[in-house]
Structures are given as C-alpha cells and as structure tokens.
Known about the structure:
By secondary structure, the chain is mainly α. It has a domain at about 155-245: Serine Threonine Protein Phosphatase 5, Tetratricopeptide repeat (Alpha Horseshoe). Helices cover about 80% and strands about 0% of the residues. The chain has 13 helices and no strands. Helix 4 (about 75-90) runs parallel beside helix 6 and helix 11 (about 195-210) packs parallel to helix 13. The termini are far apart. The mean pLDDT is about 95.
Amino acid sequence: MRDVSDLWDFSDPAGSLARLRAAAEAAMDSPGGADERRLLRTQVARALGLLERFEEGHTVLDGLVDGVHHDLPSELGVRMALERGRLRRSAGEDAPALALFTEAAGLARAAGLEELEIDALHMVCLVLPVDEQVAAHEAAIARAAACGSPAARAWDASLLNNLGMVHADAGDHRAALGCFERALAARVRLGDDDRTRVARWMVGWSLRLLGRDAEARAVQEALRAELDALGLDDPYVDEELALLRS
C-alpha cells in the first residue's frame, strides 16, 4: 500500500477520515486502483474506530470482501485482521482483539510483511493480561531488532516506551527508567525531534519518581529552554518543573 503517513494525523481522526476517504475514491482512477482502494479503506475503518464509530468501521471492512480476511491477497488480509482487531480493542473487547492481532502477526510474518508484523505484535502486547505484558514486549522488541526492514526496526522506540510504562504501572521505576533511556536512544537514532522531546520527558519523569530530583530538573529545564527557543508550549514540562520546585 502507498505510504499514507501524509494522510494520517492521529490527533485529528475526523480530518484523517476525510483525507483517507478521498484518497480511496481517487485510487480508482489509477492502475490497480481497486486493490489500492481496498487497502486504503482499511485505514478508513481505523479512523472510524478512533472516532468510536465502531459499527461503521466493521461495515467498511465487511464491504471489502464480505468480511472474510482468510486467504486474501496477503497485505489486505493482514490489514483487515489488524484493523478489525483495533476496532474490537477500542470497543473494550480485548479477547477477540487479541485473537485478531495474533492472526495478523502470523499472516504478516508468513507474507514477509515485517512492519505490519511488528505493528500487530505491538497491539498483542497492549491487550494481553498485565502479567504477560513484560515478556510479550521483550519478545516483540527482539523480533523488531531481527527484522531487515528499517520501518519494522523503528518500532523499537514505541515498544520500549510501552514496556517502560508497564514497569512504571507496576511501581518498578528503576526498570522503567532503563526502558525510557533505551527508547530515547532509539528516538535519537530515528531523528524525530518531537518524539525525541517526549522521550526525554519520559526519562525526566522517571527520574523524579526515583527521587533523583536534580537530574530530573536538569532534563525538564533543558526541554523548557528548547521549547522556548522554538516558541512552543508543553504543559507537561511545566507541570514537572512545578512539582520539582515545590
């Protein structure tokens, strides 16, 4: 499928939905347009899920090939299982979502679609019982590192951040900090300034929770100075600084 990152803004699912629908319709005018349109409509279903319009999302997927994703052309089959799973998860239906994400990961691996495989594994991690999430994240991180696709390997940053949050939620802030530091290194490697700032914030947050206030303050003050220079605001940085100065 074409790279749709320019059509997606996850902070604006309604705008994304409009762009994805328009792109799906426009695809019909290009060679191979029917297949491209079906793939784009899986993303339409995803956008509907983010808007909590779950039944509409399922209807879109049902209309692609009568709702059956087994034995389809490989990428479409993977994306249908993956987006059906996201709809289920967003609706609070974790058990069927887990089955769909597991299926999507298996289909993707069999088809050599590494980026989609890691995306599906990351979703598996999110719906497993809490006591299984650490092992699942570690397995997904190892799998991502073994992939040949740079896009698949780039999932390590998100997976490490999510693993850090699993440790933090369990009260193990030392383990969380280690994950957040590794996630920061991954973000620096990937060169995304906005997400790198978020990763730095996570490190500072974790340092504060460990009682390492001087180090935490240095992280947040550096972020505040950088944001000021860029003319940007971040209430989360300000909140951390207020806590550290109290």
